[in-house]
Amino acid sequence: MLDKPETGLEEADGVLVDRATFTGNRGLAIEEGLIFELGRPEASGVDLPEPAPFQSRLGGLERKTPIGLPGLSEPETVRHYVRLSQKNYSIDTGIFPLGSCTMKHNPRLNERMARLPGFGDIHPLQPQSSVQGALELMKEISHWLLTLTGMQAVALSPRAGAHGEACGMMAIKQALIARGEAEQRKVVLVPDSAHGTNPATATLVGFEVRSVPAREDGIVDVEAVRQALGPDVAAIMLTNPNTCGLFEKNIVEIAEAMHEAGAYFYCDGANFNAIVGRARPGDLGVDAMHINLHKTFSTPHGGGGPGAGPVVLSSRLAPHAPLPFLVQEKAGLRLVEDKAEAPGTFGRIGAFHGQMGMYVRALTYMLSHGADGLRQASEDAVLNANYVRVGLADLMSLPFGNRPCMHEALFDDAWLKGTGLSVLDFAKAMIDEGFHPMTVYFPLVVHGAMLIEPTESESKATLDLFVAALRDLAMAVQRGDKERFLGAPHYAPRRRLDETRAARTPVLKWTKPAPIEN
């Protein structure tokens, strides 16, 4: 391992200042203040004439003091935000190994299709007769989703994963109302290895949560599910593959137990990328499942674009799907928006029908891959995760043994015991190596979890470098090179924050500092 170069960096109030350069800049890494510090009230990117004399109609409510917005010229504004963008990490700059997030490449073909006239400029209040092409696309993506999942109905309107969870659970609640059992069945079973939003969603919809423990091998115990069942149970919310990166091999037995008890089976579809083309949730006994288009089907994730979380429903829940939904008539496609036409529905889950741009991108991904390509994508995602697992298994500990995983490899902190270092220290050191850290401290069923999901997008060369970098860090831990970790990141634009303090006492408003007296 080469010695680290002398940087001349000094820390002042959490900010790295380079005393080796006059400006504080380091080559193309430009150091500059906040936009409020750069701005001047007299500066502007445009020249506006003084308004003609007028009489205010604000009734004395007009502002009496300066607004306090920073003034910058257009070049200054552009440079500021471009420099900020250069500090970002994204899927377009490198591997994004966040477990349980499926941060995959967003093909540029998808973007081109989403910008086609008729898709990019339509409005939700247009007459349905003028958007038949868009409705046809919605029909087509619905067909793909139903075929891939083996389900009977799909609601496209949910905006993202948690919104989709709410949709599925509201459909279950409506089904219980229709059966006259809503007051009796108030409990939702949530395994410890389920997605973190599941218990929150169940509570939001009005259910009580009863946890179900996992076995020592990370799989949900069927007997534990049976023991938790009773006439008060409405449903189970199970993630498959679960958040430990393992396939719930007893899922069919769990579904049968739920149905025999008169309850429903909600499956969290956040990890659907691992099984597309390999297993259909409907065949496994699932009644409702959301699908993250921004995970499985490559639409932009997080800040890159709005989410989309369609929900597929079994025949047991199809009559309770939300409005609006598509029907084919002689005159063309039509959205059913009146509850009188669908007496079983629980109503709307959004003002309009969702994210048309995301539908276009997801369908483009489906059509460009084809059925065999989607299956290969899942297989490659699983292959890549196992490649990472094998590459690190001799240095980092695996909580459930060194056995095959699904689309993500889960490590714990047992290998760090006695080193004086934590998972957070290791993750921060990855930033110095140019990598976004993996998901840490999740799932909660594993102490000091490190969850890595490389997705199918990454090449063998990328994974080799990623594994080699993590191996080098792990060997530095073994050598006792604590300084490499405790102060990390050393080379990022900002040093490590006190994250607890930042979360509990955030500074949300910039205050002009007092002038420095000579």
Automatic annotation (TrEMBL):
It comes from the Bacteria. It is an enzyme of class 1 (oxidoreductase). Residues 377-478 form the Glycine dehydrogenase C-terminal domain. Keywords: Oxidoreductase, Pyridoxal phosphate. Residues 169-302 form the Aminotransferase class V domain. The keyword Oxidoreductase applies. Its EC number is 1.4.4.2. GO terms for cellular component: cytosol; glycine cleavage complex. GO terms for molecular function: glycine binding; glycine dehydrogenase (decarboxylating) activity; pyridoxal phosphate binding. One of its GO terms (biological process) is glycine decarboxylation via glycine cleavage system. It catalyses: N(6)-[(R)-lipoyl]-L-lysyl-[glycine-cleavage complex H protein] + glycine + H(+) = N(6)-[(R)-S(8)-aminomethyldihydrolipoyl]-L-lysyl-[glycine-cleavage complex H protein] + CO2. The glycine cleavage system catalyzes the degradation of glycine. The P protein binds the alpha-amino group of glycine through its pyridoxal phosphate cofactor; CO(2) is released and the remaining methylamine moiety is then transferred to the lipoamide cofactor of the H protein. PANTHER family: GLYCINE DEHYDROGENASE (DECARBOXYLATING), MITOCHONDRIAL, GLYCINE DEHYDROGENASE, DECARBOXYLATING. This is glycine dehydrogenase (aminomethyl-transferring).
